[in-house]
Amino acid sequence: MEKSYLMSEKTSAFTRKFLFVILCLHLSSTSVFSQEEESKWQLGGYVKYLQIATFAGGDTTGTFPLTNSFFHNRLNIKYYANDSWTLAVEARNRLFWGEQVKFDPTFGDQIDPDIGLLDLSIRWADNKDLLLHTIFDRAYVNYATEKWEIRLGRQRINWGINTFWNPNDLFNALNFLDFDYEERPGSDAIRFQYYTGAVSSLELAWAPDDTLNNSTAAALYKFNIKGYDFQALVGYFRGDLALGGGWAGSIKNVGFKGEGTAFIPLSPSTDSISSVNFSLGADYSFDNGIYITGGILYNSNAKRANALGRQSNLFTALPSAKNLFPSTWTFAGQGSGQINPLMTFSMVTIYAPDNDLTILVPTLTYSIVENWDLDLIAQSVFATAAGIGYGHAASSGYIRLRWSF
Question: CA-to-CA distance for 54 and 65, rounded, in angstroms?
């Protein structure tokens, strides 16, 4: 019988969650606002309101648009015990309501999954009227000296280099299209960093799971040669040997980045195959403040992943470093600039020729006052459908109001 490395099966999941929440609330209520230790505590976060409307291309059923609304609150609590020790707990709380909650019986399951070793995801309410959900995506203790650092618990291990896709991100591959989750998910892991020089370091990380086949352990070495930052990695990734590396530098005034990882199965399996993910990126800033960046992804595993039905939701799915986007070749570009001192506009375009897929994401941001922002965002998908040809598949529009503290 399989068992978690850290928790007995006899301990109920709800009890673990409840005790964890009580501990966090106790820490924040008894010490965060203590005058004697005020300088040691840091409390921050934000509150958002997001209104969503989704439209289907060519729809004639009269059921669209579908609307959805939610409040999104984030709390970040850190305690600096001294120059070496740091404790951190961060959680996101979301309250959903609207037609998507009402008509989609799987909506709660889509929101709730916690892929960590410990299940720190809680559904306080889940019915046709609303969904109230909390997840702790950071919970760690950190010890640091001048030359080395060790961190234990739920944390983000960011090994990626490029803007759009990160084949080197073995622990926390991100979904670039999930714009409302800036912090990105974390891993239940232990991480050791040793700074071998001013521009070089060695990093070791291990994220255990219920089974060895789902665990990840790897080493990363960073160094610099003539103004270019390089990194090389080797590790075990969910049953595969992972070998990879990347660089970041510039050609004159143009930033130039690249990273790639090869995955080699260590034992034969019907669900394992050797694969390579590789991405290139470039960016440039004009004198007038306009910024442009572009990227290319090669994913040799795309066709097999599509056949297995993975990554069905491009905008919210959690990808893996082995399958970052369901297309063999994918191209992306982004441009942004200020319209005036208070208003910024950006446009992201993604094109996947394998699937004849185009995604457009325009964003308009307005700074109302200090710590208050208003965003207007759209996500439009154009694709080829059987018997219809290439055209508009679906679009979602978002109005987001954010207050940061």
Answer: 5
For residue 80, what are the contacts with CB-CB under 8 A and spacing of at least 6? 40, 41, 42, 86
Q: Which residue has the tokens 């995506």?
A: 137
pTM as predicted = 0.84
Cα(10)–Cα(51) distance, integer angstroms: 41
Cα dihedral: 101, 103, 109, 110 (round 10):
-80
Measure the CA–CA gap between 186 and 166, rounded to whole angstroms: 15
Q: Which stretch of 29-38, 252-261, 270-279 has the lowest confidence by average pLDDT?
A: 29-38
Question: What element of type H or E holds 101?
Answer: helix 99-103
Amino acid at 380: S
**Partners of 251 in beta bridges:** 254
Can you tell me the distance from the alpha carbon of 102 to that of 94, in angstroms, rounded to the nearest whole number?
16
- The closest alpha carbon to 332, from 403, 282, 402, belongs to 282
Phi, psi of 39 (to 5 degrees): -70, -20
Sign of CA dihedral 31, 135, 50, 157: positive
